[in-house]
Amino acid sequence: MRIFVHSATECFTDYKPHGEGLIFNDYLNALVDHGHVFEGYAGEVHLNCKIDGVTIHPLSINCIFRSFRYFKYNRAINRLFMKQVAEGERYDVVWRGNPMGEMCPVAPETSGLPLVVGPLYLSWSSKPQSSTPSKLGPSLIANRLAPLGWMKTLQKADLIFVTTASLKEGLDRDPAIQATVAISPVMIDPPSHCLSQPKRPIFQLTWTGRLEDEKHPFLALDVLRELVNQGCSVTLNMIGDGVLRDGLHRYAAEHGISEQVEFSGSIPNSKVWDIAAESHVLLSTARDEPYGRAILEGMAVGAVPVVDRSGGAVEFITDGKSGVLCDEHSAQGYVKRILPLISSPELWQKMGEQAREVTHQFSSQVVAASMHSHLMALVNR
Q1: pLDDT per residue as tens digits for the range 277-306
Q2: What is the domain count for the chain?
Q3: pTM
């Protein structure tokens, strides 16, 4: 099957720390083994290994009004697709990858072909709106128009891939959505050497994400500080980069925990695997995390996930068995749930084993077989 990819995420990659780009790359890579061929576009393309059967071109768009960049980007891809069809290119399906609402303000052209949309993730919590009325301008106009294009895309779709059961339930209830909605979780295939990698002698927490407010990285440092103050021998490795980096370094120094925390920065995903494999706990302080690929990666190598009871993680973590879901989003709330793991190696080991077992259902072999089945049903209907 030949598939035109109408935007393979903003950053299509096999090594950069861009969750959506890594996930979509995994999808296409695994589906090639089922005989599918992909060609299309992405905002950026960063690949260490070229995949036979996958050709994704970078498409950079400049726009005077930044708020209208996605309008221009989507229309440019539509023109490229229609030009290729007019020149005789043959496709079986159009796939709009990782739309994320406002990034898909213009519905994809399909030339009558079936349209696949997704994967869709849960959304971050809405940020408080300013009480000051917005002035009529490009940003306000774009924000009003973008949801209309996104809704047209969903209504036009024939198959929608979602990552969680709750998303499927919501779309299935929407009378405006006529598409088949299929659950397609992220693919998790840990490197073989990570499965036998020993844990560090000192109890290690690992935190992975953008160093931005929505991820609550300062809370991770507060958790570490509280554990140290209670006499625990523990370290924290923070993976990621962002606008809060310098402030986090200062905070660690001011509170006397610089020796217990390591800031690894933005590193290739292969190194993220290595660090997770030697860790005892995968700590996530984000609230309403849309999915949590890093959480699943940690679970796959036996790190116990300790996360907020919200977002996508609640659909694959069973509290007290395959991980910890914290009801209290505070340092004390997290510490209260981590202390038993530190004091009882047997408990930590049992939960780590159960966490690893959960991720077997997320192997590329299992997920790709399901996706392939849905794609074939789409073109053979």
Answers
A1: 999 999 999 999 888 889 999 999 999 999
A2: 2
A3: 0.86
